[in-house]
Design a protein that fits this description.
The complex is a heterotrimer of chains A (215), B (537) and C (399). Chain B is mostly helical and 537 residues long. Chain B contains 26 helices and no strands. The radius of gyration of chain B is 24 Å and the shape is globular. Classes of the chains: A alpha/beta (215), B mainly alpha (537), C alpha/beta (399). At the B-C interface, helix 19 and helix 25 of B face strand 1, strand 2, helix 4, helix 5 and helix 9 of C.
Chain lengths: 215, 537, 399
């Protein structure tokens, strides 16, 4: 699996925000994009996911496994996302949150898969709990599992550890990146915190000019 | 003792009349002979079925249509347009709308006349389009009137900054998990909005099941809905029938409570079955944008048509079928309306004073009483709005007899205050309590005293909800029929009581003119509220 | 506490009532009453569904203000029964003063108020203008629905069941109930009547009873539930035959006579009914009905009655209410009321009792829409029939 961006750029009300750049993220690779707030890094993820809203406009093509997804609707792209907030659906139980994005199929198999993924989140047997009863770290793990069981072709992470406290942040980073790598999912992380980049991973910077350069 | 400043006037002028009224009506209903007479009335069961059916169907259809429109337009440019539109329509009095809509669909109405022109009919068709035995016409008017109300509530909830951005982010996640906009609406947005609509839906349901004025104009007649039977009894010359009516009002209330509880337990029992729907996995279902837009355009056209038709009718005398346009225009209806301005002045003064009093009481409460007691006022407000008006007003009428308040403007004001304050409090409670206390700290740091802070900072910042509450209150007061009629005792006539009296004589031009004024006042209030709310810095 | 207070008020009421019930023995007494009435405000509770009637009451108000310094306020009522209920509730609660000073009333509403002692009086016969009333020619001015008025209400106008429709569409107007059944049969869906307890509807049913009952004398006597069924069997048989041919196959009925009027004007119905023989002519004059409109009464007679004004026992402006009732009986007020251009309500006065000067207030002319061949007015059945008829009608056709 791979994610490739061809001559992707962003404009805000006609003014350039990010100038055209190419990028290929390989199977299981986690690429980090750094930049100050307001530089357009979240909007870049929105463009890739397909839900960028005017006056922001994106250009260039997006390929997932050699398949051009640029003109597809967001829900058809199979691009998983994680945000600062866990965004678990408050009206659904933990188990229902996991099932929400899991492809349709036999009920027993789906429930089995949901249980397994909760075990991986170290929350085995918690499927009937409501999200509001979980701690921040637990919610973040469920949120990741919910994204992974949807079997995304790539993952976009938007400052995913920003709201966690320092101690939890380190362990969550390790947890998230190990799962992304073991599933072989190409991933893009945007952050303003250098520490968010996985060790040895590629890091890109967005400059004030809108240019994207390697660190 | 500061809390007394907020709690005392509220208890004396709002809570006491409400509870006293309820006590009085239960006291008069304690008459075995009246109950026996009630249960031997040949129409009550059919009437009850009609009441429950129109209330339930009215609620179900209004909610379904409103949700459909919201699903299709949410996140679209049309959403903002819809909100402006709905704000104006939601407060239109039901009665006025029923009158205009009736003339559109009745056998000698405008639609039939257009068809007659094409097909060469000379006599009206035998259509059963108004006052049909099943109450479809009543249902249609109810739905047309409630959809904007529910849309307004949905928009109001979704507009709250924290909630709307949360919903947006949840939608992004859901999309990334493979859900289309339609699926997101059903599986993510709706389950979070519906619980917030619970009490408004109860209000709509009870209103539909206990409405009198509109049912008199468009509802079935043989038998009529139960509330109409009760209303007839309450206004009868025979004492025994008055007692039967009071028993009936209590019975209708009990039936509504029973049906509500039955529905609640059925919901609790069957709601888990819905889980399958939430967890079956992603669906690419899109939003019904075109359909929703068509619905919105349809609604808008109907409202405009009703408005224009009322205007035309107000200028018309004899207008026989199948003429498409009235043979001559006359202004007698408008000149009569202007020549006897008492109903207009009463309606306006009652609306403005009741809203001013309600706002004062609400603000006094918020400023002096701790937030944790809000729940009590909210509960009584919901009681005031969910118990049938026919029950509360009947009780207040008995109570006011002893207090010599019937027939006085002040008595009618208290009757209006019951629902007006309830609405104002419900609209204001959230925004007022959510007011960021840090403003106060900052402002006290700048040597501002409490009053100046309130007048110069708090009120301007809370202007939009205050204006909305005022506009809603004016609409509610203008539309009151039963309390004005009972407590007014013929001495305090309002636009609404006058319109129903005119309907009894069938002068359509005058009725149309009154209905137009009835519609214009809340519309104006809402337009002004929107205009001034926008000017907020 | 409450009960004693209420009792106290009731006693006061009764005590206050005694001296005023005495007759005005002299013109001086009446003059005293007129001066007492000065400056008082009379809340006249009167049905207000009709523009010409409202305009007439407004005119009366201007006259009263100018001549007697009385302020007449028209408390606009959709149904007189609501006034009966209100006065009864007020008296029970001991509310002094009451909300109504004068009520437009007759029939079962009057009977209910009289029986429950809710009316002030007797006063009617002692009004100076009562001498003009045609008590011989119009016996219903003294007996309201077989209930003697005994001075508790003062006659105001005459009413008689009258039918009207568009003469250009009606070839042969039905002349009795049986003919009406055939008329409805050949014009299905184009005839109806208002559902009782609308009093026009109740009157229509009474007319059917009148024409199907063997011995009409039974109607002037009180009726009981036991005998009612047998007496009314052939009336219901007639209605059963008629209903399938009525508007909406007789399954739904308009609730009020006003709706009938509107449906006639719209062309939905062929004919309508009224209690005011001049209503159609009045509507033609007001351009609400076409010039081809005709009015008729059954040649065998139709139910006729008188409508009155009465003073509730808890009225505040008792003196002014009587002065108003007296003014409404004056030749000038009666003549203005009978005028088709204003209201067209037939007078209760006797032309023979008026001087030539007074008779000038009554302008007679034959206008479009008026009744061409008046027929005898048949007195209303005893008031006890009304609740039974209404209940039985509901039983038969209500569900």
């Amino acid at each position: 699996m791979s994610l490739s961006l061809h001559a992707v750029s962003l404009t805000l009300a006609g003014a350039p925000l990010i100038t055209a750049f190419d990028l290929v993220v390989e199977d299981g690779e986690v690429v980090t994009i750094m930049g100050p707030s307001g530089c357009g890094k979240s909007s870049l993820l929105a463009y890739i996911a397909g839900d960028l809203t005017p006056p922001l406009l994106g250009h260039g093509r997006i390929f997932l496994n050699e398949r051009d997804v640029t003109d597809m609707r967001p829900e058809q792209r199979k691009i998983g996302r994680l945000f600062q907030d866990d965004l678990l659906f408050p009206h659904l139980t933990v188990g229902q949150n996991i099932l929400f994005g899991m492809a349709r199929g036999s009920k027993d198999q789906r429930v089995e898969k949901m249980r397994l993924s909760l075990q991986q989140a170290e929350l085995g047997g918690w499927e009937d709990r409501m999200p509001s009863t979980l701690s921040g770290g637990q919610k973040a793990r469920v949120s990741l599992m919910r994204a992974l069981v949807a079997e995304p072709s790539c993952m976009l992470l938007d400052e995913p550890f920003n709201k966690l406290d320092e101690e939890l942040r380190t362990s969550m980073r390790a947890y998230v990146y190990s799962h992304l790598q073991s599933h072989g999912i190409p991933s893009l992380v945007v952050s303003h915190d250098k520490a968010d980049a996985p060790r040895g991973g590629r890091v890109l910077h967005i400059r004030k000019s809108g240019e994207i350069v390697h660190a | 003792m500061k809390w007394l400043g907020g709690a005392l006037p509220l208890s004396v002028f709002w809570l006491a009349p409400l509870l006293g009224g309820l006590a009085a009506v239960s006291f008069t209903a304690n008459d075995p002979a009246a109950w026996r007479a009630f249960f031997s009335h040949p129409q009550i069961w059919h009437g009850l079925a009609l009441s429950l059916a129109t209330g339930t169907m009215g609620l179900a259809l209004s909610v379904a249509i409103a949700l459909w429109i919201a699903a299709g337009l949410h996140g679209n440019m049309a959403w903002n347009k819809m909100q402006q539109l709905v704000g104006g329509f939601l407060s239109l009095p039901h009665l006025a709308f029923a009158v205009g809509f009736g003339f559109l669909i009745m056998p000698s109405g405008l639609i039939a006349r257009v068809i007659a022109l094409a097909l060469g009919w000379t006599t009206p068709p035998p259509w059963v389009t108004t006052q049909d035995p099943y109450g479809f016409a009543l249902l249609a008017v109810l739905v047309l009137k409630e959809v904007p109300f529910i849309l307004w509530l949905i928009a109001g909830h979704m507009q709250r900054p924290e909630f709307s951005s949360l919903l947006n982010e949840q939608a992004r996640v859901a999309r990334s998990l493979g859900h289309g906009d339609g699926s997101i609406w059903l599986r993510v947005v709706l389950p979070q909005i519906l619980p917030r609509l619970l009490w408004p839906m109860v209000i709509v349901w009870v209103y539909g099941a206990s409405v009198v004025d509109m049912a008199l104009v468009t509802g079935p007649t043989q038998p009529p809905p139960l509330a109409v039977i009760i209303w007839g009894d309450l206004n009868n010359a025979q004492q025994a029938l008055n007692a039967r009516g009071a028993a009936g009002a209590v019975f209708l209330t009990l039936m509504l409570v029973t049906a509500g509880l039955a529905f609640a337990s059925a919901w609790r029992l069957f709601a888990p079955l819905l889980d399958v729907f939430f967890t079956q996995g992603p669906s690419g279902a899109g939003a019904p944008r075109r359909f929703a837009f068509a619905l919105l355009v349809g609604f808008r056209s109907l409202y405009v048509a009703v408005f224009l038709l009322l205007f035309l009718l107000s200028l018309t005398g004899f207008w026989a079928f199948p003429a498409l346009l009235p043979p001559q225009m006359q202004f007698s209806a408008w000149s009569e309306l202007i020549e006897s301005p008492a109903p207009l002045l009463n309606s306006l003064s009652l609306a403005f004073v009741s809203v001013a009093v309600a706002l004062t009481f609400a603000i006094a409460w918020f400023e002096t009483v701790d937030e944790r007691f809000d729940i009590a006022v909210l509960a009584f407000s919901l009681a005031a709005l969910t118990l049938p008006a026919i029950l509360i007003a009947q009780g207040q009428y008995f109570l006011f007899l002893h207090l010599m308040l019937n027939g006085s403007w002040f008595g009618v004001l208290l009757g209006h205050l019951t629902p007006v304050f309830a609405y104002v409090f419900i609209v204001l409670q959230g925004p007022y309590r959510a007011f960021d206390p840090r403003y106060r700290s900052v402002s006290y740091g700048l040597n501002t005293d409490a009053l100046r802070f309130w007048a110069a900072i708090k009120v301007p910042l809370l202007k939009p909800p205050l204006l909305t509450a005022a506009a809603v209150g004016i609409g509610v007061s203008i539309a009151q029929y039963i309390p004005s009629q009972l407590i007014g005792s013929g001495r305090v006539s309002t636009l609404t009581t006058e319109a129903v009296t005119l309907a009894s004589g069938g002068n359509r031009a005058l009725l149309a003119a009154f209905s137009l004024v009835l519609m214009a006042i809340p519309l104006l209030a809402f337009t002004l509220a929107t205009r001034f709310a926008r000017n907020t810095p | 506490m409450k009960v004693t207070r209420r009792q106290l008020l009731r006693t006061t009421l009764a005590a206050g009532l005694l001296p005023v019930t005495s007759q005005f023995s002299s013109a001086a007494d009446w003059a005293a009453l007129e001066s007492e009435a000065k400056g008082q405000t009379v809340y006249f509770n009167a049905w207000a569904g009709s523009e010409p009637i409202n305009a007439y009451i407004a005119w009366a108000g201007e006259m009263l203000k100018a001549v007697y310094d009385i302020t007449l306020i028209h408390a606009k009522i959709a149904d007189t029964a609501e006034v009966v209920r209100r006065v009864r509730d007020e008296v029970k609660a001991g509310t002094v003063p009451g909300s109504a000073d004068l009520v437009w009333i007759n029939g079962e509403n009057f009977r209910a108020m009289k029986q429950d002692k809710l009316l002030f009086g007797p006063f009617a016969q002692s009004l100076p203008n009562f001498k003009y009333v045609d008590t011989e020619g119009k016996p219903t001015t003294l007996v309201d629905f077989a209930e003697p008025t005994e001075g508790y209400e003062s006659p105001w106008g005459m009413a008689q069941l009258t039918f009207f429709g568009d003469g250009s569409k009606i070839v042969q107007s039905p002349d009795n109930m049986a003919e009406l059944v055939s008329f409805a049969t050949s014009n299905p869906g184009r005839v109806t009547y208002p559902a009782p307890p609308d009093f026009h509807g109740t009157t229509f049913v009474k007319q059917a009873l009148l024409e199907t009952i063997g011995d009409r004398a039974q109607l002037s006597r009180p009726v009981t539930k036991d005998t009612f069924q047998a007496i009314t069997a052939s009336m219901f048989e007639l209605l059963d035959r008629m209903h399938p041919h009525l508007w909406r196959e007789g399954k739904q009925f308009p609730q009020r006579q006003a709706q009938l009027k509107q449906m006639l004007a719209d062309g939905e119905l062929l004919m309508a009914l009224t209690f005011n023989p001049n209503e159609a002519a009045n509507l033609v004059a007001g351009k609400a009905l076409p010039f081809s409109t005709i009015s008729w009464q059954f040649s065998g007679g139709t139910i006729g009655n008188t409508h009155f004004v009465a003073v509730p026992i808890n009225a505040k402006a008792r003196a002014a209410a009587q002065v108003t009732a007296n003014f409404l009986l004056s030749p000038e007020a009666q003549g203005h009321k009978a005028n088709l251009a204003t209201w067209g309500d037939p007078t209760v006065l006797s032309m023979n009792k008026l001087s030539a000067e007074e008779a000038k207030f009554f302008a007679t002319s034959d206008v479009a829409g008026s009744v061409k061949k008046p027929s005898p007015a048949i007195p209303e059945p005893h008031g006890s029939w009304v609740p039974l008829i209404e209940a039985a009608w509901l039983e038969h056709y209500g569900a």
